Amino acid sequence: MPIYEYQCQKCRQQFELLVFDLAAEIRCPDCGSKRVSKLPSLFAHKSDSGFTPSSGGSSCSGCTSSSCSGCSCH
Fold it and tell me: 70 φ, ψ to 5°?
C-alpha cells in the first residue's frame, strides 16, 4: 500500500494519500475536487549505511526537502 503524492488542479494544493485500491477515486482534501494529478516522488532504500533517497523525482535542483510540499523553492 504505497503513499502517493498528488496536486489538485483546481486549488493547486499538494497532498499525500495512502492508496489501498488503485481504482479508488482520489479527491482533494481541501476543496473536494476530483481533478488531481499524481506527482513524481522520491523513494528511499535501506542499505548498510542507512536510508538513502533515490536520485530523480524532484524537479527542483535547489531543494533539500524530501517532498515538494516541504520545498521552499515553490
Answer: -100, 5
Instruction: Give the largest Cα separation in the chain, rounded.
Output: 43
Task: Give the domain 1-42 fold.
Answer: Rubrerythrin, domain 2 (2.20.28)
The pTM of the full predicted model, rounded to 2 decimals, is 0.55
E strand or H helix at 35, and its extent? none
Task: Give residue-wise pLDDT tens across range 2-16.
Answer: 889 999 999 999 999
Among 58, 54, 13, residue whose Cα is nearest residue 36:
13
Domains of the chain by residue range: 1-42
CA–CA separation, 21 vs 6, rounded Å?
15
Cell representation of residue 29: 482534501
